[in-house]
Amino acid sequence: MDTRQRGALRMDIGWAFLILAVCMVLGLACMPLATPIQTDVPTATKRPVEPTPTPSPSATPGKTDPPTETPVIPVPATTNDVPVALVMVGNATSRSSLNLLGGFRDGEWLDAEHAADFLDLEKQYRTLGLDGLEQAVRITTVQRENGPVQFCDQPEYTLRTEGEVMPFAVGLNTGWPAYPRQVEWLSNQSATYLQALNEYLLSSGVDSPESRIEQILRADLDGDGSDEVLLAASRFEEPTGHSVLAGDYSLVLMRKLTMDGVVTQRVIGEIYTSEETLAFPPGYTLQGILDINADGQLEVLVYRQVWEGYGTILFELRGDRLEETLRLVCGP
Fold first, then answer.
1. Inter-residue contact 139 to 160 (CB < 8 Å)
2. How confident is the model at residue 314 (pLDDT cuts 50, 70, 90)?
3. Coil, helix or strand for 24?
4. Mean pLDDT across 89-116
5. C-alpha distances in angstroms, 209 versus 53, 202, 212, 248, 263?
6. Residue 101 and residue 315: Cα distance in Å, rounded?
7. Tell me, what's the pLDDT at 240?
8. CA 101 vs CA 30, 109, 164, 172: distances in Å
C-alpha cells in the first residue's frame, strides 16, 4: 500500500469514528445498510389465536350458563291433571248411565266407594267400546245405591249422563292412550280355537262338549312381544236362564305362551257337568281390553250377565296369569 492509499484509509477511519460519535450523542440507531447475515437459529412457530366464542343472547356477562340436560319425563301413575284414574262401565240395562267400578292412585287400585270422592261433574269423560269407538260424555248426577233390592257386592254408584252412551262402554277420566298396542278381533269360527275350547272342556269333565265361541280377541297384554288370546264362550240350552243342563258353560279363557309352552287359563266362568234347577247361571263376555292406569299393560274387563243382575270384573296380568282386581256385581 503506497502513501496515498494509507492516507485515504486513515481518512475513512476518521470519518467512521466521527459518525459513530455523532450517533452516540444523538441516540440514533445507526444500522448497517448491508443485508444481515442469516444464521441457523430456528424460528419459533407462532401459535394460532383461537377465535373468541360469541356469547349467546341469553347469557349473562360474568355468569356461566349451566349445561342443558334432556328432561326425563316419567310415565305417570295416574295423570298430571287428575289425582285418580277413574274407570266407569256401562251395562246392558241402561243407555243413559254408567257405573263407577273404581280407580287407581299412587300404585294402588281403589274400589268404587273410595274412588267416588274424585268424581268431577264439570269434567268431560271418555267412553270407549270394545270395537275401538270413542265417545265423549258428561255426567249430570251421581246416585249412590246400597240397598237390599240391588244385591250388589259393594255400594253402587250410578252416573247419569247427558245423552246416550254406548252399550257396555268403558269410561275413563284420563287422557293417555288407552290402546298402546293393537287389539285384534279374530273369527269366532277359528278351527284352532274351537279345538282348544273342545280340549279344555274335555279336560274339565264334559263328556261330549259342544264348542261355541262368542268372542276371540288377540293382544299383547304385557308388551313382551308375544300376543295373548282371549276367548269368551257360552252354551246354555235352557231358554229361561234359570236352570242348566249337563254340558252347559260360560267362561273366559286366556291362551298365553309361557316358558312351559302355551297355557290355557280359565280367567272366570263355570262349567256344568250335570243338570241343575234354578241355578241362575251367569254368562261372561269380554267388555274391554285397554290400559287404565298408564302402566303399559292392558287390563281386561269382563261383563257378567245374570238373571235380574249384571256386573263388571277387572283383571290385571300378574306374571303369567290374569288376576281379579276390581269388581261390581249386582244380582244373584
1. yes
2. very high
3. helix
4. 93
5. 82, 7, 9, 9, 20
6. 12
7. 86
8. 107, 10, 19, 11
- pLDDT, tens digit (0-9, with 9 covering 90-100), for 119-153: 998 889 999 999 889 999 999 999 998 655 557 88
Residue 327 pLDDT grade (very low, low, confident, very high; cuts 50, 70, 90):
very high
3-state secondary structure of 80: coil
Question: Which grid cell is 53?
Answer: 366464542
- Can you tell me the distance from the alpha carbon of 255 to that of 74, in angstroms, rounded to the nearest whole number? 32
- Indicate the pLDDT class of residue 175, thresholds 50, 70 and 90: confident
Distances (CA, A) of 178 to 146, 173, 297, 298, 310: 31, 11, 10, 8, 24
Q: Which domains occur in the chain, in start order?
A: 85-172 (2.40.30), 186-330 (2.40.128)
Cell 234354578 -> residue:
278
**What element of type H or E holds 6?**
helix 3-26
Integer Cα distance of 246 and 279 in angstroms: 12
